[in-house]
Amino acid sequence: MSIIELGEVRDEDVPPRPVRRPRAAGRPLRCAAVLLLALVVLASAAPAPERTVSPVPGARAAAAYLAADGVFVVDPPTPTGDRYLTAYAPPTPGGGVPRRWRAPLPRAGDYLGVRVEQGLVLAVGISAQNGVFETTAFDPETGSQRWRLAGIPQATADGGLLLVVDDMTDEPGAMRRVDLDSGRLLWSVPIPPPGNPGYQVRDGRVDRFVLVQPTGEVQVYDAGTGDLLRSVDTLTGDRSAYQRVQVVDDLLLLVPPGATRLVGHRLPGLDPLWTAEVPLVSYAVGCAGLLCALQQTGGLQVIDPATGAVRWSDPGRDTLADVRDGRLLVAGPGQRYAARDAATGGGRAELGRWNLVPSLGRDDPLLGVRPLDDGRLVVAELDLAAGRSRIVDVLPDVVGNCQASLPTLLCQRLDGSTALWRLPS
Q1: Are 412 and 373 in the same domain?
Q2: Rounded average pLDDT over 133-144
Q3: Which of 107, 111, 244, 301 has its CA 20 to 30 A from that of 327?
Q4: Residue 11 pLDDT > 70
Q5: Nearest to 300 by CA among 264, 249, 344
Q6: Residue 77 near residue 107 (C-beta atoms within 8 A)
Q7: CA pair distance 300, 317, nearest whole angstrom
Q8: How do residues 227-266 score in pLDDT, each as one tens digit?
Q9: SS3 32
Q10: Is residue 424 part of a domain?
Q11: Ramachandran sector of residue 336 (left: φ over 0; alpha: ψ -120 to 50; beta: rest)
């Protein structure tokens, strides 16, 4: 297994395809003795791990979505206009991918994703009739349809489900809590235009959500009950202007009109904490106990979440891609990635040019892929703590479009089909 430290994987770093050598003539006895010796040595050595490949059934134009316990495939429409969602189990030891069930999907619309959430299989798409996001829920064991409703699903910390109807139009949206089994509406809270609610999450699920009213009031709601917990008027000056809101951990961040400042409040009481002069804020994320504010023109400012003081800043073109082990994964021009220390911004380690692979597990290692000119795909682990890229595998005849649920990798092959690879450890 090759190790690439602090650099980009080059074509010469990847093992070339094997080339058949011409057979040597003569001396059959000596060749037989050498062959026998080689067989003895190989038999005594530990077997090298073999790559396991399992083709996923389905049409070449189908869209496949990896889940923790299998694969979901959305087939293209048939000549009669019908389309289906098929659930497949994990590959068998022989490499087969058994089918679990097949269920019809609405004919009109484009599907953006399929995932398992709160004990349901949820297919999210856009209706071709009105352009509204829709969610269709299926029983994970049988494939029977439970319900089909407008909105994008958001799992809640208490085991429920929200459907967010927020299409960025001038019409009010809604935050709706629905019954998992029937889709029955339990409660609804209007989302004022132009939308963009903020979410306070716990273990990756929504615990509270925040709305900003056109009058300037910031409102905090309980995602389990829909109850209003707190409402505070935070806007001064021109009340026709719009302020953006974002939630990071237990901080509510407001970008007032003009986007020259970032204002921090504590949740859920909306107690004011600090104001930081951060111009042209695009968005902010938590980064190793700090706050990373990305600017609209590029660049990064790292802020102390307790005081609002700027720890360090970089006016360059880096954008933040991930945070692991006190290190930032930043992306520069040309999808070239580097690791930086979150506390100081120093210790930059170049990792090379990659396409990041989305992963189901939040704590799974970071994977990057890079196509080669001969149709192979390099798969590497991006180790931020060590500041290096480690080649995991080189897959033949793969174009990319990968998803990961380690040690399983799902990718599209050159012929348009999809397959599962079990990566070596």
Answers
A1: yes
A2: 96
A3: 244
A4: no
A5: 344
A6: yes
A7: 8
A8: 999 999 876 655 555 678 889 999 999 887 766 788 999 9
A9: helix
A10: yes
A11: beta
- Going by pLDDT thresholds of 50, 70 and 90, the confidence category of residue 280 is confident
Find the helix or strand (DSSP H, E) in which 104 lies.
strand 99-105
**Number of Cβ atoms within 10 Å of the Cβ of 413:** 21
More confident residue, 168 or 280: 280
Distances 155 to 90, 121, 160, 176, 406 between C-alpha atoms, Å = 25, 12, 6, 12, 23
- Domain boundary at 323, 353, 383, which? 353
Q: Tens of pLDDT along 161-192?
A: 999 998 655 567 899 999 999 999 999 999 98
Whether residue 13 is contained in a domain is answered as no
Looking at the fold, whether 346 and 290 belong to one and the same domain comes out as yes
Whether 411 is covered by a domain: the verdict is yes
Q: CA-CA distance, 298 to 282, in Å (whole number)?
A: 9
Measured distance CA(262)–CA(280) in Å, rounded? 9
Q: Tell me: do 285 and 334 sit in the same domain.
A: yes
Residue 290, beta-bridge partner list: 287
Q: Which residues contact 34 (CB under 8 A, 6 or more apart)?
A: none
Q: Is 215 helix (H, G, I), strand (E, B) or coil?
A: coil
Length of the chain: 425
Residue with tokens 């002069």: 277
Sign for the CA dihedral angle at 83, 85, 91, 97 comes to negative
- Do the domain assignments include residue 418? yes
pTM for the whole structure: 0.84
Q: In what order do the strands lie in the sheet with 52-56?
A: 52-56, 418-422, 408-413, 398-405
Task: Decide if 232 contacts 245 (C-beta within 8 A).
Answer: no
Cβ-based neighbours of 138, under 8 Å, separated by 6 or more: 85, 103, 120, 121, 122, 123, 144, 145, 146
CA 283/CA 296 separation, integer angstroms: 8
pLDDT at site 328: 95
- Measured in whole angstroms, the distance separating CA 50 from the mean position of its chain's CA atoms is 28
Number of structural domains, the chain?
A: 2
Q: What is the domain range of residue 345?
A: 280-353
Check which CATH number belongs to the domain holding 287 and give it. Answer: 2.40.10.480
Gap between the Cα atoms of 225 and 181, Å rounded: 18
Domain boundary among the residues 302, 336, 353 is at: 353
Confidence at residue 22, expressed as pLDDT on a 0 to 100 scale: 44
